[in-house]
């Protein structure tokens, strides 16, 4: 008997699954994919990992390839507004009808696998299988495949072959899963490197780059490093809405590329995306021109990534800076244009993040800001940081304020005449809730 009859039931079924299992293994996913006829073998892949920037970089890679005339799949996480966003093609997110059909195919197989204690798939394994099946049903020229967590044991690493691997950044995050040092985390992310396939990496810390270089050398995988093999620079003063950058590698030099995505950290992500697309152009049978690059990057958008959501009554920006490195990048972006202004910041995060370091970075980099810490409703099986803990950490600090909700903090900042810009940041789950609420409020006006 079919248990999943609606899209809501399909999404609820996915979210009801266990998030992690103790032993990293591909046994569960392999069993599920085998029962589905191995849909992962039907597509070609560009594999993208990184502590930060992998979502934005993946979106830019997809946009560049679409500009060149390809049909491109995109798999990312988490979603901002609707679950369907996680699986996209040129037409946009997977339709409700297709999502329901995919999950109605998968759910009975999962029920059978659940009879074995070791074969019942996890939430992300099911979502990954759903993506593979959808792109088998709706074929694309290539899938830009974003890793969930890490690389070595991530479900997306099940793919048999890939065109290229991309590592955007490496910093401390998901330490309970990936390891407590930069080298350990880099080792996990380097797990996506495939023998004799090119690898593009961002400006990694020295200890991370050494790990990646060693793995690439061992697998005879050509390595392209930002700052060494290709360059990105911002020679001009930039505002928060319009930013331009230069790109250069041995075969191409472009100046004054307009980037629609805000936040100066997006320049490195854009350079990684350009280098990646140039390397896969030949195996995909396409030419990448300067005009294509300019057109694609001048129009690409990615919700929740330094996104100006409202211009009035005050400029309101949301940014899913969900870990310490993300917060550092956000603070650096804000510090330039707002060095002499008072910015209002509303922050909420999950309890498994280094919240003390994140808040310390904001206060140190933006001393003129007015910073609120607020609670939020975390997704099932996750826990938001408790305000009482933050209050205990910063009891001697006068620069941090606390509110019972982001809405009350937002109203307080709107009423403060010294604040011209408000930034809501932290967990992507928090940003998702804020975005939906503010846009719904705007629509009702």
From TrEMBL:
Domain Mur ligase central residue range list: 48-275
Q: Which cofactor does it need?
A: Mg(2+)
InterPro entries xrefs: Folylpolyglutamate_synth (IPR001645), Folylpolyglutamate_synth_CS (IPR018109), Mur-like_cat_sf (IPR036565), Mur_ligase_C (IPR004101), Mur_ligase_C_dom_sf (IPR036615), Mur_ligase_cen (IPR013221)
> What PANTHER family does this protein's entry cite?
DIHYDROFOLATE SYNTHETASE-RELATED, FOLYLPOLYGLUTAMATE SYNTHASE-RELATED
Q: Which reaction does it catalyse?
A: (6S)-5,6,7,8-tetrahydrofolyl-(gamma-L-Glu)(n) + L-glutamate + ATP = (6S)-5,6,7,8-tetrahydrofolyl-(gamma-L-Glu)(n+1) + ADP + phosphate + H(+)
- Annotated Gene Ontology cellular component terms: cytoplasm
Keywords attached to this Swiss-Prot or TrEMBL record, sorted alphabetically, are: ATP-binding, Ligase, Magnesium, Metal-binding, Nucleotide-binding
- Report the enzyme's class at the first EC level: ligase
Task: Identify the residues that the record assigns to the Mur ligase C-terminal domain, covering every copy.
Answer: 304-427
* Stated name of the protein: tetrahydrofolate synthase
Q: Which organism is it from?
A: Weissella halotolerans DSM 20190
Would the keyword Translocase turn up in this protein's UniProt record?
A: no
Superkingdom, taxonomy of origin: Bacteria
Q: Which family does it belong to?
A: Belongs to the folylpolyglutamate synthase family.
The protein's Enzyme Commission number: 6.3.2.17
Q: Does the keyword Ribosomal protein apply?
A: no
GO molecular function: any one? tetrahydrofolylpolyglutamate synthase activity
